[in-house]
């Protein structure tokens, strides 16, 4: 197996400005495109996923300009979107596809969407079924479950939905469609998923009612262009929280990391495991709290997590599993069957990847059982095209005895294009 070799480190030191939050960058571009007037986004994530959102918007007649991580979207309202002359390609991005389908359900034209091999195998029925019930016509493989999908949007009717999985992509797709539907649209989830759509819609001037795990909007809400400052992505910071905890010496400072409570499960989990993580200067900008995080070495012990905690750290489970391999005792992660429909089946790919590096991880139907060890041997692992696995294996390499050769490390570009340069900078 060829790959990028990641050497073991004896310590880490430095300040890392993690790139902009992926979920918030997508939403800023999308809401900017739906709004009337210009939207200026700072610290936009230049990962492949968010670039897919900008590219799809352009095909729909919404122009944008980019200079470094600053983006300007020239919105003229959703009525100004035009029928694309070609297939929309969402690349690897579940968020681009599902949120975009929600917005397009109310557009009186026909769109075909597709994506890469991973996205073409991910379930879309969770959004297409509710959008069909609201009035959109959708055709695709397996009864509208798999990309490529063709949708003809139009007149929508508001509805109340009770979802069976806590998914911000599903909630957001329905709520965005609800803005173009008649009457009220409500989504009630089994547990609260990330609430960036609700917060940002309020910032763009739309009334959104939230009560416990239910969210409602009235049809017809108009969005007005805004300035959006995107905080650093806690999902990217998570790799350094684990590295800084287990590298043995040194300190990592992570300024401007988003600490929205629907995303901070990784902080709660690591701190419960014994991590030395401090939140400094918490402040809220554009409706999203952010803080400087400081992490120092600590001894970690295993934990049990499940239930409502899972949606709060769903994307961080691969790197949390790396931490658990080096913690004292057993870690059990349950209620996380959603991992099976992420960019890869992250239950089986995490088990296989970590065991190949000398860890002891068991696969559960809905999670993982990880037996902590004092050290990790290292070896070879593939990202299998999944960005979070690429970065988890690289951190495992830095914390291992023999290093790790990561095949398809380039997958990290989906959410963290500078990742390799940054780990080189902090390694001691
Ligand atoms: C996201 C929601 C989550 C997460 C994904 C981004 C979002 O997916 O895993 O990386 O931006 O809404 P689900 O909503 O499907 O759980």
Automatic annotation (TrEMBL):
From the UniProt record, give the pathway where this protein acts.
Metabolic intermediate biosynthesis; chorismate biosynthesis; chorismate from D-erythrose 4-phosphate and phosphoenolpyruvate: step 6/7
Localization per record: Cytoplasm
Annotated positions binding 3-phosphoshikimate: 22-23, 27, 167, 169, 315, 342
Q: Which GO terms describe its molecular function?
A: 3-phosphoshikimate 1-carboxyvinyltransferase activity
What keywords would UniProt list here?
A: Amino-acid biosynthesis, Aromatic amino acid biosynthesis, Cytoplasm, Transferase
Domain spans labelled Enolpyruvate transferase: 7-421
| InterPro entries with a match to the protein in the record | Enolpyruvate_Tfrase_dom, Enolpyruvate_Tfrase_sf, EPSP_synthase, EPSP_synthase_CS, RNA3'P_cycl/enolpyr_Trfase_a/b
The family database entries (PANTHER family) matched by this protein are listed as: AROM/DEHYDROQUINATE SYNTHASE, PENTAFUNCTIONAL AROM POLYPEPTIDE
- Name it: 3-phosphoshikimate 1-carboxyvinyltransferase
